[in-house]
Design brief:
CATH architecture of chain B: Alpha-Beta Barrel
Number of strands of chain A: 5
CATH topology of chain A: Ubiquitin-like (UB roll)
Order of helices and strands of chain B: EEEHEEHEHEHEHEHEHHH
Structural class of chain B: alpha/beta
CATH topology of chain B: TIM Barrel
CATH superfamily of chain A: Beta-grasp domain
CATH superfamily of chain B: Aldolase class I
Radius of gyration of chain B: 21 Å
Strand content of chain A: 35-45%
Distance between the termini of chain B: 52 Å
Oligomer: heterodimer
Largest sheet of chain A: 5 strands, mixed
CATH class of chain A: Alpha Beta
Radius of gyration of chain A: 11 Å
Largest sheet of chain B: 5 strands, parallel
Number of helices of chain A: 1
Order of helices and strands of chain A: EEHEEE
Strand order of the largest sheet of chain B: 5-4-3-10-9
Shape of chain A: globular
């Protein structure tokens, strides 16, 4: 299935959770915040939240800034 | 001297906020934080690249985080970033930064004041970054800002207090801490801002891009402390007009008068 992650299309084999998507991208689960279709998903729900065809994921984290 | 800086429900000892952007190596940040004495440190939020490393590993644990909403072009986008920062564990403090002009990087006063309103409703403690404009500052204060953060000069320019006249007006008129943010290129700039009555300064570029960021952090710490002490001591009035010189030592009893007798 096709998921949009940070504006780019990525293919995942269902069933895939947010945790699966983050692992596939090499992202540290404990240091990212995730929005699915514009709503923030709490970190403790990453392992149970299944992704669906066409979902839009935003994966963000803290970076240096002033 | 007991001179706590009370802001956003906290009593701080340090009046220097530092940033985390533009460091040659982020691993120097903990040493910079120690040398600066800062208790507040800013961060930004961005999309994660595949396998990308953020700043979290380099953030000193004892500092209060002040995430910014850089990248936001509207009040709504700023609110979205504030929610993400809170979900990232940053707490409720948020530096509101709403900028759509990519050339001058000047903040949008209307959108910023609107963002303060939206964020206060959700329990955030907003620190709006603004042009030093009296009406924008009043709008932010009226909407519930914890402090205002007017710029001294365009961000990243290191040009000092180019907005001095307007900053003075805000310090006199706005009943909130004024944290001078942006443009402070040298410790003397920060010192002057504190002498003028600013409550605190935020410095990023000038420390991060110094040849020795740790030493520069110490220099800014000393400058902010000196400026604050001078403010509390009551600075002597400047004499602007020509011929205004006043001797510090007595003008009588010179030895030459004795020699002539």
């Amino acid at each position: 299935m096709e998921i949009c992650v940070n504006g780019e299309k990525e293919i995942f084999v269902p069933p895939a959770t947010i945790a699966d998507a983050l692992a596939a991208r090499g992202n540290d689960v404990n240091r990212v915040v995730v929005e699915v279709n514009g709503g923030i998903v709490p970190r403790e729900k990453f392992v149970q939240t299944l992704l669906r065809e066409g979902d839009a994921l935003e994966v963000v984290h803290l970076v240096g800034g002033g | 001297m007991d001179d706590p800086f009370v802001v956003g429900g906290a009593a701080l000892k340090s009046r220097l906020f530092i940033g985390t952007g533009k460091y040659g190596a982020d691993s120097v940040i903990p040493a910079v934080a120690r040398a600066s004495g800062a208790e507040v440190i800013t961060v930004a939020m961005r999309r994660v690249d595949k396998g990308g490393q953020g700043i979290t590993a380099h953030l000193p644990e004892n500092l209060r985080l002040l995430p910014n909403t850089s990248g936001a072009r509207t009040a709504g986008e700023a609110l979205r970033l504030a929610r993400l920062a809170r979900a990232a564990g940053c707490g409720d403090w948020i530096k509101i930064e709403v900028i759509s002009d990519t050339r001058h990087l000047l903040p949008d006063g209307y959108q910023t004041a609107r963002a303060v309103e939206l964020m206060v409703r959700e329990g955030f403690v907003p620190f709006p970054y603004i042009n030093p404009d009296l009406y924008v500052a009043r709008d932010c204060a009226g909407a519930g800002a914890a402090a205002i953060m007017p710029l001294g000069a365009p961000i990243g320019t290191n040009r000092g207090l180019r907005t001095k006249e307007m900053l003075t007006i805000l310090i006199e008129e706005i009943d909130l801490p004024v944290v001078v943010d942006a443009g402070l290129g040298k410790p003397s700039h920060a010192c002057e801002a504190m002498e003028m009555g600013a409550a605190a300064c935020l410095v990023n570029t000038a420390i991060a891009t110094a040849r020795d960021p740790v030493a520069m952090a110490g220099a800014f710490r000393a400058a902010v402390e000196a400026g604050r002490a001078a403010r509390l001591a009551g600075a002597a009035a400047a004499r602007a007009r020509a011929g205004g010189a006043r001797a510090s030592s007595p003008l009588t009893g010179f030895l030459r008068e004795l020699a002539r007798n």
